[in-house]
Amino acid sequence: MHAQPDTPTPPTVTLVGAGPGDPDLLTLKALRAIRRATVVLVDDLVGEGVLRHVRRSARVVPVGKRGGCRSTPQDFIERLMITEARRGERVVRLKGGDPFVFGRGGEEAEHLRAAGLRVEVVNGITAGLAACTALGAPLTHREHAHGVIFVTGHARDGQSELDWVQLSATAAQGFTLVIYMGVARHAHIAEGLRTHLGGAMPVAVVQHASLPHQRHAVTTLDALADTVRREDLGSPAVIIVGNVLQGLAALPRPAAEGLTAVAA
Ligand code: SAH
After folding, report:
1. pLDDT digits 0-9 by tens, 209-241
2. Does the pLDDT value for residue 249 go beyond 80?
3. Which of 37, 151, 204, 235 lies at 20 to 30 Å from 127 by C-alpha?
4. Which numeric CATH code is attached to 127-247?
5. Strand locations in 66-175, DSSP E?
6. C-beta of 39 in contact with ligand 1 (< 6 A)
7. Per-domain residue ranges for the chain?
């Protein structure tokens, strides 16, 4: 039998989840892809510690809001990936957390595949997961939560926002809510969620989860607005709502070095 002639690998782009920031939370697969890459497109929320693993000779293109223009247009990002991959470069698209959780990874993968490219996806630890763990709380608990709901607090232009009152009815059946991109709308979100969850429901806001400058507060839906203002919490942050947080405010502060814990 003759050996099959080598079929050329089609141009490939790897969407890599960079995790919440702490480079120790990268998967081995992500680390390998990052080290091999010759062109790396990087979002804002990718931690500096993660970028240290990129080889020096690689071309690094910041494509987030801090990368130059206010926000790099999506079609420019996609065109760049296609051109570089077709040139034979090993293209990695580095995204904060997991590429398929609120990261537009799905849209990018679709467009790249439509252009005839092969797309590989490497999971990362999503911010909501890291945020809960950073507090020492579980996302599910046999007594308090038999599921988790991940939602975005940010409405896409022209589309209607989530119905927070209706969501509070669902969550009241025993789900932990993890809200991404919600700090700017925290007052509105808390108002809706109070309807079925009650004002005393525990809430945590975790900013820069997993990074040395992480800040967080544990409070209640009723006190959320005051807490966010007083502690000056802002983006990037995850809001966690649910009984899995019960008793956390009373726990000793996490011992991680450099961690600023803010008890409400
Ligand atoms: N794909 C990412 C989410 C991108 S959307 C993931 O899986 O984590 C951007 C939002 O993610 C931010 O507005 C914030 O809500 C959240 N986020 C990302 N990194 C974070 C971090 N280190 N700490 C807290 N929230 C974070």
Report:
1. 999 999 999 999 999 999 999 999 999 999 999
2. no
3. 37
4. 3.30.950.10
5. 91-95, 118-122, 148-152
6. no
7. 12-122, 127-247
The CATH number of 12-122, from 3.40.1010.10, 3.30.70.100, 3.40.50.720, 3.40.50.300, is 3.40.1010.10
Q: In the beta sheet, which residues pair with residue 241?
A: 177, 203
Name the DSSP class of 154.
Answer: S
Q: Is 132 within 8 Å of 178 (Cβ atoms)?
A: yes
Return the higher-pLDDT residue of 257 and 142.
Answer: 142
Is 43 known to be catalytic? yes
pLDDT tens by residue, 156-168: 765 668 999 999 9
pLDDT above 70 covers a percentage of the chain that reads: 86
State whether the beta carbon of 214 lies less than 6 angstroms from ligand 1. Answer: no
Cis peptide bond upstream of 236, omega within 30: yes
- Is 164 a pocket residue for ligand 1 (Cβ < 6 Å)? no
H-run or E-run covering 133: helix 127-135
Which of 22, 81, 95, 181 is an active site residue? 181
* Best probe residue, ligand 1, of 180, 185, 233 (max atoms within 8 Å of C-beta): 180
